[in-house]
Protein backbone atom coordinates (compact mmCIF):
# COMPACT_ATOMS: atom_id res chain seq x y z
CA UNK A 1 0.00 0.00 0.00
CA UNK A 2 2.78 2.35 0.89
CA UNK A 3 4.44 1.48 -2.39
CA UNK A 4 1.31 2.19 -4.31
CA UNK A 5 0.91 5.71 -2.82
CA UNK A 6 4.51 6.53 -3.51
CA UNK A 7 4.09 5.44 -7.11
CA UNK A 8 1.03 7.67 -7.50
CA UNK A 9 2.89 10.63 -6.01
CA UNK A 10 5.82 10.04 -8.34
CA UNK A 11 3.60 9.73 -11.35
CA UNK A 12 1.77 12.97 -10.54
CA UNK A 13 5.13 14.72 -10.09
CA UNK A 14 6.15 13.32 -13.45
CA UNK A 15 2.97 14.67 -15.00
CA UNK A 16 3.65 18.14 -13.61
CA UNK A 17 7.23 17.95 -14.87
CA UNK A 18 6.07 16.83 -18.29
CA UNK A 19 3.47 19.57 -18.51
CA UNK A 20 6.00 22.16 -17.43
CA UNK A 21 8.56 20.89 -19.94
CA UNK A 22 5.96 20.64 -22.72
CA UNK A 23 4.88 24.27 -22.38
CA UNK A 24 8.32 25.63 -21.55
CA UNK A 25 9.40 26.52 -25.04
CA UNK A 26 6.20 28.44 -25.64
CA UNK A 27 5.80 30.20 -22.33
CA UNK A 28 9.35 31.13 -21.44
CA UNK A 29 9.85 33.92 -23.92
CA UNK A 30 6.63 35.93 -23.49
CA UNK A 31 6.67 35.21 -19.72
CA UNK A 32 9.97 37.05 -19.45
CA UNK A 33 8.47 40.16 -20.99
CA UNK A 34 5.56 40.02 -18.52
CA UNK A 35 7.25 41.21 -15.34
CA UNK A 36 4.06 40.89 -13.30
CA UNK A 37 4.17 37.15 -13.65
CA UNK A 38 7.80 36.72 -12.76
CA UNK A 39 7.54 39.07 -9.79
CA UNK A 40 4.49 37.27 -8.44
CA UNK A 41 6.45 34.22 -7.20
CA UNK A 42 3.27 32.36 -6.18
CA UNK A 43 2.58 28.70 -6.85
CA UNK A 44 2.66 27.81 -10.43
CA UNK A 45 -0.78 27.35 -11.88
CA UNK A 46 -0.34 25.81 -15.32
CA UNK A 47 -3.89 26.62 -16.46
CA UNK A 48 -3.66 30.31 -15.66
CA UNK A 49 -0.21 30.65 -17.16
CA UNK A 50 -1.33 29.07 -20.49
CA UNK A 51 -4.15 31.58 -20.87
CA UNK A 52 -1.86 34.48 -19.94
CA UNK A 53 0.65 33.35 -22.56
CA UNK A 54 -1.88 33.07 -25.37
CA UNK A 55 -3.06 36.65 -24.76
CA UNK A 56 0.50 37.97 -24.81
CA UNK A 57 1.66 36.18 -27.99
CA UNK A 58 -1.43 37.05 -30.12
CA UNK A 59 -0.42 39.71 -32.69
CA UNK A 60 -3.41 41.47 -34.21
CA UNK A 61 -1.61 44.60 -35.30
CA UNK A 62 -0.76 44.97 -38.98
CA UNK A 63 2.53 46.60 -39.98
CA UNK A 64 2.66 50.29 -40.79
CA UNK A 65 3.63 51.25 -44.34
CA UNK A 66 4.96 54.71 -45.03
CA UNK A 67 5.37 55.70 -48.67
CA UNK A 68 7.31 58.61 -50.15
CA UNK A 69 4.33 59.13 -52.50
CA UNK A 70 1.03 57.45 -53.24
CA UNK A 71 1.00 58.82 -56.78
CA UNK A 72 4.26 57.72 -58.38
CA UNK A 73 4.88 58.18 -62.11
CA UNK A 74 7.34 56.75 -64.57
CA UNK A 75 8.04 56.85 -68.30
CA UNK A 76 6.69 54.06 -70.49
CA UNK A 77 9.51 51.71 -71.30
CA UNK A 78 11.25 52.23 -67.96
CA UNK A 79 10.77 49.70 -65.19
CA UNK A 80 8.51 50.61 -62.27
CA UNK A 81 10.17 49.73 -58.95
CA UNK A 82 7.56 49.83 -56.17
CA UNK A 83 10.24 49.27 -53.50
CA UNK A 84 11.66 52.69 -54.35
CA UNK A 85 8.52 54.50 -53.08
CA UNK A 86 8.48 52.69 -49.71
CA UNK A 87 9.91 54.99 -47.04
CA UNK A 88 9.53 52.54 -44.17
CA UNK A 89 7.64 49.48 -42.97
CA UNK A 90 7.43 48.80 -39.22
CA UNK A 91 5.67 46.26 -37.08
CA UNK A 92 5.22 45.73 -33.37
CA UNK A 93 6.39 42.12 -33.24
CA UNK A 94 7.83 41.03 -36.56
CA UNK A 95 11.34 42.05 -37.48
CA UNK A 96 11.64 44.16 -40.62
CA UNK A 97 13.41 41.46 -42.60
CA UNK A 98 10.57 38.99 -41.88
CA UNK A 99 7.79 41.22 -43.17
CA UNK A 100 6.56 40.16 -46.60
CA UNK A 101 6.09 43.09 -48.99
CA UNK A 102 4.03 42.69 -52.13
CA UNK A 103 2.75 44.71 -55.08
CA UNK A 104 -0.44 44.07 -57.04
CA UNK A 105 -2.13 45.98 -59.85
CA UNK A 106 -5.86 46.25 -59.16
CA UNK A 107 -7.04 48.29 -62.12
CA UNK A 108 -5.46 49.00 -65.53
CA UNK A 109 -1.93 48.07 -66.57
CA UNK A 110 1.45 49.71 -66.71
CA UNK A 111 2.15 48.68 -70.31
CA UNK A 112 0.38 51.78 -71.62
CA UNK A 113 0.31 55.47 -70.78
CA UNK A 114 -2.32 56.49 -68.20
CA UNK A 115 -3.28 55.88 -64.57
CA UNK A 116 -3.10 52.46 -62.98
CA UNK A 117 -4.37 51.52 -59.52
CA UNK A 118 -2.27 49.20 -57.41
CA UNK A 119 -1.82 48.02 -53.82
CA UNK A 120 1.35 47.68 -51.81
CA UNK A 121 0.89 45.17 -48.99
CA UNK A 122 3.01 44.28 -45.97
CA UNK A 123 2.33 41.06 -44.05
CA UNK A 124 3.75 40.34 -40.59
CA UNK A 125 4.65 36.91 -39.20
CA UNK A 126 1.14 36.49 -37.73
CA UNK A 127 -0.46 37.12 -41.11
CA UNK A 128 -1.70 40.67 -40.43
CA UNK A 129 -1.80 42.59 -43.70
CA UNK A 130 -1.43 46.32 -44.21
CA UNK A 131 -2.52 47.68 -47.59
CA UNK A 132 -1.65 51.05 -49.14
CA UNK A 133 -3.43 51.95 -52.37
CA UNK A 134 -1.41 53.88 -54.95
CA UNK A 135 -2.16 55.40 -58.33
CA UNK A 136 0.69 55.01 -60.81
CA UNK A 137 0.84 57.43 -63.70
CA UNK A 138 2.64 56.05 -66.75
CA UNK A 139 3.84 58.86 -68.97
CA UNK A 140 4.78 58.63 -72.67
CA UNK A 141 6.89 61.37 -74.17
CA UNK A 142 8.00 59.40 -77.23
CA UNK A 143 6.32 60.51 -80.48
CA UNK A 144 5.29 57.94 -83.09
CA UNK A 145 7.60 56.97 -85.94
CA UNK A 146 6.07 57.85 -89.29
CA UNK A 147 7.46 57.03 -92.71
CA UNK A 148 5.58 58.24 -95.77
CA UNK A 149 5.75 56.78 -99.27
CA UNK A 150 8.89 57.92 -101.03
CA UNK A 151 7.42 59.01 -104.35
CA UNK A 152 4.45 61.07 -105.38
CA UNK A 153 1.31 59.04 -104.78
CA UNK A 154 -1.14 58.74 -107.63
CA UNK A 155 -4.81 58.58 -106.76
CA UNK A 156 -7.91 58.67 -108.84
CA UNK A 157 -10.05 61.78 -108.87
CA UNK A 158 -13.36 60.97 -107.22
CA UNK A 159 -11.93 58.11 -105.14
CA UNK A 160 -11.69 58.66 -101.40
CA UNK A 161 -8.08 59.13 -100.39
CA UNK A 162 -7.03 56.93 -97.48
CA UNK A 163 -3.99 57.38 -95.24
CA UNK A 164 -2.90 53.83 -96.11
CA UNK A 165 -2.10 55.12 -99.61
CA UNK A 166 0.28 57.71 -98.14
CA UNK A 167 2.01 55.90 -95.28
CA UNK A 168 4.82 53.41 -95.77
CA UNK A 169 5.07 52.55 -92.06
CA UNK A 170 3.94 53.86 -88.69
CA UNK A 171 4.57 52.68 -85.14
CA UNK A 172 4.61 53.86 -81.54
CA UNK A 173 5.74 52.56 -78.15
CA UNK A 174 2.13 52.87 -76.91
CA UNK A 175 -0.11 51.00 -79.33
CA UNK A 176 -1.50 52.13 -82.66
CA UNK A 177 -1.29 55.87 -83.26
CA UNK A 178 -4.16 57.73 -84.90
CA UNK A 179 -3.38 58.91 -88.45
CA UNK A 180 -4.94 62.06 -89.84
CA UNK A 181 -4.13 64.12 -92.92
CA UNK A 182 -4.82 67.61 -94.19
CA UNK A 183 -4.48 69.16 -97.62
CA UNK A 184 -2.07 72.06 -97.23
CA UNK A 185 -1.81 72.90 -100.91
CA UNK A 186 -4.07 72.08 -103.86
CA UNK A 187 -7.52 70.51 -104.03
CA UNK A 188 -8.31 66.81 -103.81
CA UNK A 189 -11.44 67.42 -105.89
CA UNK A 190 -9.49 68.74 -108.88
CA UNK A 191 -7.09 66.98 -111.22
CA UNK A 192 -3.51 67.93 -110.44
CA UNK A 193 -1.06 67.86 -107.58
CA UNK A 194 -1.79 68.35 -103.87
CA UNK A 195 0.51 68.56 -100.89
CA UNK A 196 -0.80 66.58 -97.95
CA UNK A 197 0.39 66.75 -94.36
CA UNK A 198 0.06 63.41 -92.60
CA UNK A 199 0.14 63.28 -88.78
CA UNK A 200 0.43 60.30 -86.46
CA UNK A 201 -0.71 60.98 -82.88
CA UNK A 202 -0.36 58.62 -79.94
CA UNK A 203 -2.64 58.29 -76.90
CA UNK A 204 -0.55 60.88 -74.99
CA UNK A 205 -0.94 63.39 -77.85
CA UNK A 206 2.68 63.13 -78.98
CA UNK A 207 2.67 63.52 -82.75
CA UNK A 208 4.88 63.25 -85.81
CA UNK A 209 4.05 64.83 -89.16
CA UNK A 210 5.32 64.67 -92.70
CA UNK A 211 4.25 65.93 -96.09
CA UNK A 212 3.73 64.09 -99.33
CA UNK A 213 2.67 65.00 -102.86
CA UNK A 214 -0.44 63.38 -104.26
CA UNK A 215 -1.30 63.34 -107.95
CA UNK A 216 -5.06 63.36 -108.39
CA UNK A 217 -5.75 62.11 -111.85
CA UNK A 218 -8.81 61.25 -113.89
CA UNK A 219 -9.52 57.66 -114.74
CA UNK A 220 -8.49 57.08 -118.36
CA UNK A 221 -10.02 54.67 -120.87
CA UNK A 222 -8.78 53.62 -124.31
CA UNK A 223 -10.75 52.92 -127.51
CA UNK A 224 -11.41 49.36 -126.40
CA UNK A 225 -12.97 50.64 -123.19
CA UNK A 226 -10.14 49.45 -120.97
CA UNK A 227 -9.28 51.34 -117.83
CA UNK A 228 -5.67 52.19 -118.64
CA UNK A 229 -5.09 54.53 -115.67
CA UNK A 230 -1.55 54.11 -114.45
CA UNK A 231 -1.00 52.33 -111.15
CA UNK A 232 1.89 53.28 -108.83
CA UNK A 233 4.60 50.66 -108.82
CA UNK A 234 3.19 48.91 -111.89
CA UNK A 235 5.23 49.63 -115.00
CA UNK A 236 3.09 47.45 -117.27
CA UNK A 237 -0.42 46.44 -118.20
CA UNK A 238 -0.72 43.16 -120.11
CA UNK A 239 -3.31 42.63 -122.84
CA UNK A 240 -4.17 39.15 -124.16
CA UNK A 241 -5.99 39.10 -127.50
CA UNK A 242 -7.77 35.76 -127.85
CA UNK A 243 -8.58 36.37 -131.53
CA UNK A 244 -4.99 36.89 -132.69
CA UNK A 245 -3.34 34.78 -129.93
CA UNK A 246 -1.06 37.65 -129.00
CA UNK A 247 0.05 39.08 -125.69
CA UNK A 248 0.74 42.82 -125.89
CA UNK A 249 2.52 44.56 -123.01
CA UNK A 250 1.77 48.27 -122.51
CA UNK A 251 4.09 50.68 -120.76
CA UNK A 252 3.27 54.10 -119.34
CA UNK A 253 3.10 57.33 -121.34
CA UNK A 254 4.11 60.78 -120.07
CA UNK A 255 0.83 61.01 -118.15
CA UNK A 256 1.57 57.72 -116.44
CA UNK A 257 -1.14 55.76 -118.28
CA UNK A 258 -0.81 52.51 -120.20
CA UNK A 259 -1.08 53.71 -123.77
CA UNK A 260 2.33 52.65 -125.12
CA UNK A 261 2.69 49.08 -126.44
CA UNK A 262 6.28 48.04 -125.75
CA UNK A 263 6.53 44.33 -126.59
CA UNK A 264 4.34 41.55 -127.98
CA UNK A 265 4.47 37.76 -127.71
CA UNK A 266 2.71 34.98 -129.61
CA UNK A 267 0.65 32.75 -127.36
CA UNK A 268 -1.86 29.93 -127.16
CA UNK A 269 -5.15 30.65 -125.41
CA UNK A 270 -7.82 28.12 -124.37
CA UNK A 271 -9.02 25.80 -127.13
CA UNK A 272 -12.67 25.16 -128.00
CA UNK A 273 -14.56 24.04 -124.92
CA UNK A 274 -11.78 25.45 -122.72
CA UNK A 275 -12.00 29.09 -123.71
CA UNK A 276 -9.96 31.56 -121.68
CA UNK A 277 -12.36 33.96 -119.92
CA UNK A 278 -12.29 37.60 -120.99
CA UNK A 279 -12.14 40.50 -118.55
CA UNK A 280 -9.90 42.69 -116.43
CA UNK A 281 -7.85 40.84 -113.88
CA UNK A 282 -5.74 42.29 -111.11
CA UNK A 283 -3.23 39.47 -111.07
CA UNK A 284 -2.35 38.44 -107.53
CA UNK A 285 1.34 38.01 -108.31
CA UNK A 286 1.46 34.40 -107.20
CA UNK A 287 4.09 32.72 -109.34
CA UNK A 288 5.86 29.39 -109.64
CA UNK A 289 9.03 28.40 -111.45
CA UNK A 290 7.34 25.06 -112.12
CA UNK A 291 3.61 24.53 -111.65
CA UNK A 292 1.80 21.22 -111.96
CA UNK A 293 -1.25 21.68 -114.15
CA UNK A 294 -4.70 20.07 -114.01
CA UNK A 295 -3.74 17.55 -116.73
CA UNK A 296 -0.61 16.51 -114.76
CA UNK A 297 1.77 18.36 -117.05
CA UNK A 298 4.02 21.19 -115.79
CA UNK A 299 3.97 24.86 -116.67
CA UNK A 300 7.20 26.78 -116.32
CA UNK A 301 7.46 30.45 -115.26
CA UNK A 302 3.84 30.30 -114.17
CA UNK A 303 2.22 33.59 -113.09
CA UNK A 304 -1.34 33.45 -111.81
CA UNK A 305 -3.79 35.70 -113.69
CA UNK A 306 -6.90 34.70 -111.77
CA UNK A 307 -7.12 32.22 -108.92
CA UNK A 308 -10.90 32.02 -109.24
CA UNK A 309 -10.71 31.13 -112.93
CA UNK A 310 -7.60 29.00 -112.53
CA UNK A 311 -5.75 30.71 -115.35
CA UNK A 312 -2.04 31.53 -115.55
CA UNK A 313 0.65 32.72 -117.90
CA UNK A 314 3.19 29.94 -118.39
CA UNK A 315 5.38 28.09 -120.86
CA UNK A 316 4.30 25.37 -123.25
CA UNK A 317 3.76 22.39 -120.91
CA UNK A 318 6.42 19.86 -119.94
CA UNK A 319 5.78 16.21 -119.14
CA UNK A 320 7.82 16.59 -115.97
CA UNK A 321 9.42 19.57 -114.24
CA UNK A 322 12.62 19.24 -116.28
CA UNK A 323 13.76 21.55 -119.06
CA UNK A 324 14.47 18.60 -121.41
CA UNK A 325 11.01 17.11 -121.13
CA UNK A 326 8.92 19.49 -123.25
CA UNK A 327 5.47 18.35 -124.37
CA UNK A 328 6.76 18.98 -127.88
CA UNK A 329 3.53 18.18 -129.82
CA UNK A 330 2.10 21.32 -128.17
CA UNK A 331 4.92 23.70 -128.99
CA UNK A 332 4.25 24.58 -132.62
CA UNK A 333 0.61 25.29 -131.71
CA UNK A 334 1.75 28.66 -130.30
CA UNK A 335 -0.16 31.35 -132.17
CA UNK A 336 -3.32 29.20 -132.02
CA UNK A 337 -5.78 28.24 -129.27
CA UNK A 338 -4.48 25.04 -127.65
CA UNK A 339 -4.60 25.21 -123.88
CA UNK A 340 -7.13 24.38 -121.18
CA UNK A 341 -7.55 28.11 -120.53
CA UNK A 342 -4.05 29.27 -119.58
CA UNK A 343 -1.93 31.61 -121.68
CA UNK A 344 1.03 29.66 -123.06
CA UNK A 345 4.16 31.29 -124.42
CA UNK A 346 7.73 30.29 -125.14
CA UNK A 347 10.00 30.11 -122.08
CA UNK A 348 11.61 33.47 -122.75
CA UNK A 349 8.25 35.25 -122.94
CA UNK A 350 6.66 33.48 -119.97
CA UNK A 351 9.85 34.39 -118.08
CA UNK A 352 9.50 38.02 -119.19
CA UNK A 353 6.09 38.28 -117.48
CA UNK A 354 7.36 36.24 -114.53
CA UNK A 355 10.28 38.58 -113.86
CA UNK A 356 9.00 42.01 -115.00
CA UNK A 357 5.41 42.32 -113.79
CA UNK A 358 5.14 42.96 -110.03
CA UNK A 359 2.37 41.70 -107.79
CA UNK A 360 -0.91 43.45 -108.60
CA UNK A 361 -0.37 44.12 -112.30
CA UNK A 362 -3.45 44.28 -114.51
CA UNK A 363 -4.16 41.77 -117.27
CA UNK A 364 -6.95 42.38 -119.77
CA UNK A 365 -8.14 39.43 -121.83
CA UNK A 366 -10.19 40.47 -124.84
CA UNK A 367 -11.10 39.84 -128.47
CA UNK A 368 -10.02 42.17 -131.28
CA UNK A 369 -9.24 41.76 -134.96
CA UNK A 370 -6.05 43.77 -134.80
CA UNK A 371 -3.16 44.49 -132.44
CA UNK A 372 -1.34 47.79 -131.94
CA UNK A 373 2.05 46.12 -132.63
CA UNK A 374 2.90 42.66 -133.92
CA UNK A 375 5.05 39.99 -132.31
CA UNK A 376 8.23 38.74 -134.00
CA UNK A 377 7.14 35.12 -134.13
CA UNK A 378 9.11 32.31 -132.53
CA UNK A 379 11.44 29.47 -133.49
CA UNK A 380 9.38 26.41 -134.38
CA UNK A 381 10.76 23.01 -133.48
CA UNK A 382 11.50 20.11 -135.82
CA UNK A 383 9.18 17.44 -134.45
CA UNK A 384 11.24 14.66 -136.09
CA UNK A 385 14.42 15.64 -134.23
CA UNK A 386 14.30 13.66 -131.00
CA UNK A 387 17.26 15.50 -129.53
CA UNK A 388 16.03 19.06 -129.95
CA UNK A 389 12.26 18.68 -129.87
CA UNK A 390 12.26 18.07 -126.09
CA UNK A 391 13.69 21.54 -125.48
CA UNK A 392 12.12 24.99 -125.80
CA UNK A 393 14.52 26.79 -128.21
CA UNK A 394 14.33 29.99 -126.14
CA UNK A 395 15.31 28.24 -122.91
CA UNK A 396 18.67 29.56 -121.69
CA UNK A 397 19.21 26.57 -119.39
CA UNK A 398 22.65 25.00 -119.63
CA UNK A 399 22.57 21.92 -121.87
CA UNK A 400 19.90 23.18 -124.23
CA UNK A 401 21.02 21.81 -127.65
CA UNK A 402 19.47 24.88 -129.31
CA UNK A 403 22.22 26.96 -127.75
CA UNK A 404 25.04 24.98 -129.41
CA1 LIG B 1 2.14 42.96 -36.13
CA1 LIG C 1 4.38 57.27 -77.77
Annotation keywords:
single chain, 404 residues, alpha+beta, Immunoglobulin-like, L,D-transpeptidase catalytic domain-like, 3 domains, five-stranded mixed beta sheet, four-stranded mixed beta sheet, 34% strand, disordered N terminus, binds calcium ion
Structure commentary:
The protein has 404 residues and is of the alpha+beta class. The protein has three domains: 64-139, Immunoglobulin-like; 145-217, Immunoglobulin-like, CATH 2.60.40; 237-403, L,D-transpeptidase catalytic domain-like (Beta Barrel), CATH 2.40.440. Helices cover 15% and strands 34% of the residues. The chain has four helices and 21 strands. The strands form six sheets. A five-stranded mixed sheet has the order 15-14-13-21-16, with no helix packed on it. A four-stranded mixed sheet has the order 2-6-5-4, with no helix packed on it. The N and C termini lie far apart (134 Å). The structure holds calcium ion (CA) (2 copies).
